[in-house]
Design goal:
alpha+beta; 4-stranded antiparallel β-sheet; two-stranded antiparallel sheet; 24% helix
Length: 110
């Protein structure tokens, strides 16, 4: 995210101007998100940027190069149910169940 913001700053400002991105970056340092929320930057208006806390909840789909890459579900910030990962042609590459992943986690038995 930092590299992305830095490139926006370089591309969007002329000398002496303060951009929305610079202000948002400064304000973002003051924002602390409670678990399981995550800090999120979003486009706002025609050239603005908003900063806030977000909790993933509901269906999740990631798309890359016009193809679904990941499909799953969040509930209050936690992965739940079946998560499917697809290859670049859209074929199922991997399937995991969040409950199975928790059960199969290595546990120290010292």
């Amino acid at each position: 995210m930092g590299i992305f913001l830095a490139s926006l700053l370089l591309a969007g400002c002329s000398a002496g101007e303060v951009s929305s991105h610079e202000v948002a970056e400064s304000v973002a340092k003051e924002i602390t998100c409670p678990e399981p929320a995550k800090k999120e930057y979003r486009a706002w208006g025609k050239s603005g940027l908003s900063v806030g806390c977000r909790i993933d909840h509901g269906p999740f789909v990631a798309i890359e190069n016009g193809v679904v890459s990941i499909r799953g579900q969040y509930e209050h910030g936690q992965k739940v149910g079946r998560w499917i990962t697809y290859d670049k042609e859209g074929n199922v590459y991997d399937e995991t169940d969040s409950a199975d992943a928790e059960k199969s986690s290595p546990v120290d038995e010292d």
